[in-house]
């Protein structure tokens, strides 16, 4: 039996999804896309899982769509429909996941692979990782959210240069541009990323989900509307057991023991 294209493992409240086609830098074929979709759904549904960690096996994070598989397609291909059915549910599931997602970018993140990295909530990169908006190199346009994420993360000037020039940038540049939260020595990356995911898994999970909801709508809202959104989300957060525990722990001067409820 062939090895899974996505390896799913759980430890201490964290579900780790490892893209596992290292010989082709974890480029995205149907098996890998299905594995990501199923893995995200499984992590969402499991009450024991309170954070997700996404990484790649071998020397790459993800090199985007599998160009070899794509070139073997026979007959007309409706790419908009292909993206809608195979890729968009993954990007949306990541952003709408009620649990935080840590990206551990262990090598090159190119094309849709870079979009997947940007869809994570907190991105850590190894110092030899790189980021590449590969699309224009092969006459395509950025997809899987890159034209949405990039201007918001790096501003218009850098978004245009990154997407049009399609130059590979280093992890250090990605940190400087605000594409990643931290860069670590390659050998330390997975330890640091797992520590980050476990830290998030021990936090008030529902509050983190509500924070994601607030951030998701902020750029479409005016200040007045967003204040209303915050009020509604705060009402939900204030009704949680974890909020009561956080206040009780503060008043008793002891560490909080959040349960994710
Ligand atoms: O519906 C749809 O499918 C449309 C969706 C489109 C979304 C997209 O993501 S389009 C963008 C697709 N990705 C790319 O264009 C990136 C292609 N890859 C590269 O440019 C380079 O591989 C990298 C810059 C990422 C890394 O370069 P390097 O020198 O470190 O590695 P390499 O030697 O090029 O790659 C190693 C192997 O992985 C190699 O195979 P080989 O020669 O050892 O047998 C290479 O062919 C393979 N590989 C890398 N990327 C892909 C790939 N195979 C298939 N598809 C890939 N994307």
Architecture overview:
The chain has helices spanning 30-45, 67-71, 79-96, 112-119, 146-154, 156-165, 171-177, 189-201, 205-218, 223-238, 241-251, and strands at 6-11, 14-19, 51-56, 60-62, 101-105, 108-110, 122-126, 130-132, 169-170, 182-184. With 261 residues, the protein is an alpha/beta fold. A six-stranded mixed sheet has the order 1-2-3-5-7-10, with helices on both faces. It has a four-stranded mixed sheet with strand order 4-6-8-9. α1 (30-45) runs parallel beside α3 and α5 crosses α6 (156-165). The protein is globular. The site of ligand T3D has 23 residues, from α2, α3 and β6.
The largest sheet, given as strand count, sense and whether it forms a barrel, is: 6 strands, mixed
The fourth-level CATH homologous superfamily of the largest domain is: 2-enoyl-CoA Hydratase, Chain A, domain 1
Q: Which ligands does the model contain, each kind named once? A: ligand T3D
Helix content: 40-55%
* Main structural class: alpha/beta
What is the name of the CATH architecture of the largest domain? Answer: Alpha-Beta Complex
Give the helices and strands as they follow along the chain: EEHEEHHEEHEEHHEHEHHHH
What is the approximate shape?
Answer: globular
Tally the helices: 11
Count the domains: 2
Task: Summarize this entry quickly.
With 261 residues, this protein is an alpha/beta fold.
Task: Name a few traits of the molecule.
single chain; 261 residues; alpha/beta; 2-enoyl-CoA Hydratase, Chain A, domain 1; Lyase 2-enoyl-coa Hydratase, Chain  A, domain 2; 6-stranded mixed sheet; 10 strands; binds ligand T3D
